[in-house]
Amino acid sequence: MTLANSFHDYIAFILLLIVIMILFLGVDLFISKVRITGLVELQVLELWWTILPGLLLVGIAYPSLKLLYLIDEVETPTLTLDTLGHQWFWEYNYPEFDNVRFESYIVNQIDLGQTRLIDVDNRVVLPAQNLIRLLVSSVDVLHSWAMPSMGVKVDAVPGRINQLGLENYSTGLNYGQCSEICGANHRFIPIVLEIVPRGQFLNWTQKWN
Predict the structure, then answer these.
(1) Ramachandran angles phi, psi of 129, nearest 5°
(2) What is the pLDDT of residues 32-49, one digit of tens each?
(3) Which CATH number fits domain 79-206: 3.40.50.720, 3.30.70.1130, 2.60.40.420, 1.10.287.40?
């Protein structure tokens, strides 16, 4: 997700500056033989090194809260994907396509090219370079639909629908898993998201007719 990645880079840059400054001051204090005793009682300096960290925290908190609310707003999506968590599989539905509804189970007997314990019999297929509305819920216990490579994690709560905007720009396979401990077979409900060109996606929807 673009917003989440940008926020991560922004925080990483700030943390890098802080670490560099602390290392510089620490090394300078260790090797320098000059001591300015007046700094101990310099109230103006104490005021500034109290104000500046506060402003820094505000600069981090504002985009964090902004992202927290923007991530739930999905305006004019190209496609909607309904996701239901079960013990222990995922159920998917494409409301725009009446017949595209399927269940996704872990593959026990893998073929060449499949990944052990993380591949599924029915992959989620989405068109590339589109904004997808992801609606997530559960029919039994708490689950969590997580796709780390795309910066996505949505809790599946019984009786509640959580919404998230899913932006994808490049084709390929993305692997994820339920990240909420939901029972004895929690580790056996993986997620495979296949992003394909729009024409290939439309051809894929025809096989469910």
Answers:
(1) 55, 45
(2) 776 666 666 677 777 888
(3) 2.60.40.420
